[in-house]
Amino acid sequence: MAYIKLISEEDAEGRLARLYDQARKRAGKVFQIVKCMSLAPHQLEASMGLYRAVMFGESPLTRAQREMIAVVVSKVNGCHY
Q1: Digit-coded pLDDT (tens) for 14-60
Q2: From residue 4, how far is each of 33, 61, 80 by CA, in Å?
Q3: Domain spans of the chain?
Q4: What average pLDDT does the segment 55-68 reach?
Q5: Residue 12 carries which DSSP code?
Q6: Fewest CB within 10 angstroms: 2, 57, 74, 81, which?
Q7: Residue 30 vs residues 18, 57, 59, 61, 64: alpha-carbon distances, Å
Q8: Which of 47, 28, 29 is CA-nearest to residue 37?
Q9: pTM, full prediction
Q10: Average pLDDT of the residues in 51-70
Q11: Spatial CA neighbour of 35 closest among 74, 12, 7
């Protein structure tokens, strides 16, 4: 099993603290997938931007269809989130 150093919500400062706050407001908590990028807040911010563009941006797919695709891909990859 791989070990990835994470910065906890309590230890987050500056940009990372703001990104954690945004994640908490959006999802009610900060998921581990977000914390996995905590050592590189600029990359976390870019990743969150890509996620928002894919899931909420203009698309011929409905929001429900995009969520269904995400669920199937997560299941195939063995992810529980």
Answers
A1: 999 999 999 999 999 999 989 999 999 999 999 999 999 999 999 99
A2: 11, 34, 18
A3: 14-76
A4: 96
A5: -
A6: 2
A7: 12, 22, 27, 27, 22
A8: 47
A9: 0.77
A10: 95
A11: 7
